[in-house]
Amino acid sequence: MASKFLILNPSPDALDKVLEKSNLQYTKNGPFEATILLGDVLPQGKKLPTVKVIGSTYFTEGKNGFSEDINIEDSNLVDVADNLTFAKPPFRIIKTVSGFTIMFVSKFEDFELPKIDIDILITYEWPQSIAQMLTTFGNDKVDDLVAKVKPRYHFAVGNEAGMFFELEPFAWPTGQVTRFISLGQEGSGDKWFYAFSISKVEDIPTKLIDNPITSKKRAREEEIIEEKSISKTEAKKPKVVSPDQCFFCVGNANTETHMIVSIGSSAYLTIAKGPLTRSNKNLSFSGHGILIPIEHTATVSQDSPVRKELLRYQDSLVTAFDEQKPNLKLIFWEISRDTNIHHHIQFLPVQDTLLGKFPNSLNLRVKLNNEKFKKNQKLNFQKFTDSSDPALLKIIESNNYMMFTLCENKTNRIYYITPLNENPIDIQFPRRVLAHVLNLPDRVHWDKCQQPKLKEMSDCDNFKSFFQKYDFTV
């Protein structure tokens, strides 16, 4: 016989209201084997609820601590009110009346996992391998935990606001099947409740996706192999490519015009082929794009009309994301060299919470480049916050540099730039840095990330709709 469970992500400012709704659901659709509250249920500074709870209800600590009214010295499971139980950090396992096991993990400390099957796992953060699907933030330690526990259901919220996301079930080599569900917070406009039935005998779904956690492990191993190949690659003499052979020249008969979002007088905007990021429920297109001069040129001078239009495109894109997707921040990058075939600037949006990760990712990749790959020229990035800084302009005016531009908002920019000489460079270096920021090691190489033409057309149309109001060429 199946048992029912109710999962909720309450707002800590409206806990009484949520518990009233929980009671109503219990009366109408219950009884529930257990009701589980996710996220920051009773954080520091909050008082205990006054509503009398119907049915066994459990919660644990979120990211903002727990209420001073909870006496954690009582026991591992603290009854803060009738039918309302706090699972003491760092982890606790509850066995329900019907024998189902619920594991709460609120802190990742060294603890010995029990050798029992877990039906329901509760964490605050997402696994990093699943978070990267939506370009959001996760925790590798959650991946490790899920791989060891292999729960039948895994519930999380990801951050204070939460997000509704239900991943299709995936299997483990040992035969278990896991379902991952994240909920938004009550009041956020996103789905914040989830009810389901579970029985002791598990039915294997007919449709299973690749296991994202084991796939990520394989991708990391493949990246190590790929990086080893960098050091073995001999520097090749740059090819001379004419405009009729250049895929960035709009006059080329083979130009993939179905990917062009906007065309100006001196430059144009296109979606990227083999994007680093992918479309998701937060953004209906990948967001990875390229700004390209119409003229077939290796470099672009600072005072040229081309540079001015490229900067105008950048400002328009930043405004579009700032006003429509304020939690996504753009990062632009470019490699300018006299030996380039056709100058271009790439960009993609990242979660605002990931901007702070960029310096560490950059430093890591620089260290690997400078110490491990001896044939590559040494990179030495400098940080600037003023676009008119004479030292920054001097490097840009040399026309030989690699630069990242992090856009915190419409006005604030952070520039990381390194001069380049004639020695070989890893042209995939910027993408490697961003892949590390986003924890997407399996998407470093664009040619392994190509999408079907229909998907490219869909991404382009969605980008056009997103950008139309801000497109100065219209």
From TrEMBL:
InterPro entries assigned to the protein according to its UniProt record, in alphabetical order: Cwf19-like (IPR040194), Cwf19-like_C_dom-1 (IPR006768), Cwf19-like_C_dom-2 (IPR006767)
Q: Which residues form the Cwf19-like C-terminal domain?
A: 236-358
Q: Where is the Cwf19-like protein C-terminal domain?
A: 395-473
A cellular component annotation (GO) from this entry: cytosol
**A molecular function GO annotation:** RNA lariat debranching enzyme activator activity
Domain of life according to the entry: Eukaryota
Q: What Pfam family is a match, any one?
A: CwfJ_C_2
**Gene Ontology process terms (BP):** mRNA splicing, via spliceosome
PANTHER family noted in UniProt:
CWF19, CELL CYCLE CONTROL PROTEIN (PTHR12072), CWF19-LIKE PROTEIN 1 (PTHR12072:SF4)
The protein here is known as CWF19-like protein DRN1
Q: Which organism is it from?
A: Candida tropicalis (strain ATCC MYA-3404 / T1) (Yeast)
